[in-house]
Design goal:
alpha/beta; FAD/NAD(P)-binding domain; Polyamine Oxidase, Chain A, domain 2; 7-stranded mixed beta sheet; 19 strands; 35% helix; 22% strand
């Protein structure tokens, strides 16, 4: 079968690119190895509870947000409802508790009241985040550096630095190795656009985009894996693929003018022929996949607000973390002390549980190496121990949560790897280090493109959506088509 566009992978980047290109009249084939579209933007059912795999909050969509323009084009707002999140996050470390607003003026005021001696540093932080280009043109301002280095240069109080780093886990595991430029570009969207949650879960958005592709002349094939590329006379012509499960499945072939990769770049290198694969491996050799996540999923027989919990999203830093230099060590430390995020989806009508019940999720940075090479029995036992530890820690913060818990399940980096095929179970693609080199897979084949967290725009929901959108725009510039009515 011949297509204009073949997309390998059905995460948000691939779905966005596919929907946009379908709208513009391109015949699209999207092949996804999982049984549902979305990648990390998915949900799953456990009895009465719909568990959110990845989305805690998505910046925007606001009038000035590119996503708003795109969502209007793709009829997203007609099918998907967004719930505005009332606050950025609530930070807890020992006796310190402080709520950070999405509005930068309010957030700045809250922090200045708590740390009056750091007014200049707080102003410098928000000025850089909100107006990075103005800082870049300063004569002595470096082109890029780490977030940790920047914070050390403007702020003395270590507690304040930790508060500002509350949601670091949205992007990376170490303030001293994340690019300040990348962090600023991502963080400013929360301050400029606010944030929202998708009613019914992120699967609503993913499923809508898949349906949109189908309704505009494309095909979305689930439970199939791409096994290789069709190459003749040095030209990339298409892909081979087969059903993921089943006795001796037949290998299928699809031909396409442009191939979009919505999967990991290291995985792409393994699929390519030896010469091209070696070239890509050489190009990405200096880059390292980012960290993974451990998630504890909760089903509650009540709303936690009925037992006194007031916040949608809390970031809990252990008292052993005394400075930002301690964060990376903590992320690899004992679960009894590891920093974590807890999200209470029952704070508003998320539609993830029946009336009177609610769901929640606890996340912390984690690594595949800590879960590999152990027996199935050890793996199960370790997950049970992790669930017990974190429920006990939550009980100290939200008294009564143990009694309210009806269901609990743990997803590990091994789980992430199994469902995304990402090396190391990485959730944000490559580490976003200062001066991270761009990857140009167009040098290997000029009709091969990246639209995933492993590309220029990085990870997270907005990063993936932007990556898919820009990929589609670049292809349209190359191959314009008549838009479908």
């Amino acid at each position: 079968m011949k297509y204009d566009i073949i997309i390998i992978g059905g995460g948000l980047g691939g779905l966005t690119a596919g929907a946009k290109l379908s709208r513009e009249g391109k015949k699209v084939l999207l092949i996804e190895q999982h049984d549902r579209p979305g990648g990390c933007a998915t949900t799953f059912k456990r009895g009465d509870y719909t568990m959110e795999v990845g989305l805690h909050e998505m910046d925007g969509p606001s009038p000035s947000d590119i996503k708003t323009k795109l969502f209007n084009e793709l009829d997203v707002f007609k099918k998907v409802s967004f719930i505005e999140i009332p606050e950025f996050y609530h930070f807890i470390r020992g006796k310190t508790e402080i709520t950070i607003a999405h509005d930068p003026e309010k957030a700045s005021e809250i922090l200045k009241n708590a740390f009056p001696e750091e007014k200049e540093g707080i102003d410098a932080f928000y000025f850089y985040i909100l107006y990075p280009k103005k800082r870049i043109i300063e004569i002595d301002a470096p082109k890029d550096r780490s977030l940790g280095e920047f914070l050390d240069s403007i702020i003395c109080n270590e507690e304040l630095k930790l508060i500002l780093l509350g949601n670091l886990g949205y992007f990376h595991d170490d303030p001293y190795s994340i690019s300040l430029g990348y962090y600023s570009a991502a963080q400013v969207r929360y301050f400029n656009n606010g944030a929202s949650y998708i009613k019914g879960g992120s699967q609503q958005l993913s499923s809508h985009l898949a349906t949109y592709i189908n309704e505009h002349g494309g095909e979305v094939i689930l439970n199939h894996m791409v096994t290789g590329f069709i190459i003749e006379d040095g030209r990339l012509l298409g892909v081979t693929y087969k059903k993921k499960r089943g006795p001796d499945p037949d290998t299928l072939r699809a031909f396409g003018d442009e191939i979009i990769v919505n999967s990991s770049v290291p995985g792409l290198a393994e699929l390519l022929p030896e010469k091209e694969g070696a070239a890509l491996k050489n190009e990405i050799g200096v880059q390292k996949p980012g960290a993974s996540l451990l998630t504890v999923y909760f089903g509650f027989r009540d709303y936690l607000k009925n037992i006194g919990h007031k916040h949608y999203c809390i970031f809990v830093y252990d008292e052993s973390v005394k400075s930002q230099a301690d964060i990376l060590k903590n992320n690899r430390g004992d679960f009894n002390n590891r920093n974590f995020t807890f999200v209470d989806y029952g704070q508003f009508d998320s539609e993830l549980a029946p009336e009177g019940k609610s769901t929640g999720a606890l996340c912390c940075t984690d690594y595949l190496s800590d879960w590999e090479n152990i027996s199935e029995k050890e793996y199960k036992s370790k997950k049970e121990e992790v669930a017990r530890i974190f429920l006990g820690r939550l009980e100290k913060i939200i008294p009564g949560i143990s009694a309210a818990t009806e269901y609990i399940e743990v997803g590990t980096p091994l789980t992430v790897k199994r469902y995304t095929l990402n090396p190391g179970g990485a959730v944000y693609g490559f580490e976003q280090r200062p001066f991270k080199p761009a990857i140009d897979i167009g040098k290997i084949f000029d009709n091969l493109h990246i639209a995933s967290a492993w590309g220029k725009t990085g990870g997270g929901f907005s990063g993936a959506i932007y990556g898919g959108y820009m990929c589609a725009i670049n292809i349209m510039r190359k191959r314009p088509a008549v838009r479908q009515p």
